[in-house]
Amino acid sequence: MSAPTVDPGTAGPTPPASGGGFGREALAAIARRLVPVGVSLVVILVLWTLFLQVFGVRALIGKTPWDVAEWLFGLPASAANRAQVLGDLGVTFVDAGIGYVAGLAAAGIAASVFVVSRSVEQALMPVATLLRSVPLVAMTPLIVLAFGRGLTATGVIGGIVVFFPALVTMVFGLRSASPWAMELVTVYGGGRLTRLRRVMLPSAVPAVFAAARVGVPAAMVGALMAEWLATGRGSGTRMITAVAGFRYIEMWAAVVVVTAACVALYALIGIVESLVVARMGLAGGDERS
């Protein structure tokens, strides 16, 4: 007797791709993230130099990339200069990290509640929109009076900056879930929380990472503002005191280091996103985010 044939159309599910295939896909995703970052850095350096030359900014105030590089690496006191700038950056990292984590966590909880209960969203979203319209500079003195000048006030200021754009992004991501998958869960007896856990949260992974990436510069800005207006420490205070003392090279170096840190963190989160999206098989995740 001849061996039975197997119809390809009725064959079992295709086995998952090998680890090598995932590794190549992950490397390609990382390259897609790093190449635009490198191009952006080159463009920033070129625009920085052209801006100083075109507008004739005096050398006392406007420092070129080469001036900053020399101050950080080419002088006998460069080691002390780097220690000073990086020490301030470490303080700013802690301040920004508290607001970043608090803002993203609050946004994730609020977004989940909003998509589960429309009535809660209709009651609270106008309040959130109203609070967002108030300039943070005007709110900072009130926050300082309520929470003092420590890490709590810094976390509140940074969390406010991160919370609102993250909330909008996460709500949009949760509501972009497939309606067919939602109906399937409902047919099998799943409730709102089941639909949230099984369908909405997995489909919102790219949106969550997008909120996390956007939150990096927002948290840094919030931390710098808090350091300037409230705590009196970190890179934010260093920039203000450097300008007041005519130490413009110190101010430019602080700006460059903070900007480079933001770009590096933004790229790192993008790389993690690419790996997670590739691992989960969310096709088109990079393009949507």
TrEMBL record:
Residues 85-269 form the ABC transmembrane type-1 domain. It is found in: Cell membrane. It comes from the Bacteria. It is a multi-pass membrane protein. CDD domains: TM_PBP2. The keyword Phosphoprotein does not apply. This is ABC transporter permease subunit. It comes from Actinomycetospora aurantiaca.
